[in-house]
Amino acid sequence: MIANLNHYRSMLRRPETKVVCMVKAAAYGAGSYEIAKTLQEHHADYLAVAVADEGSELRKAGITLPSSS
Question: Are the C-beta atoms of 67 and 49 separated by less than 8 Å?
Answer without folding.
Answer: yes
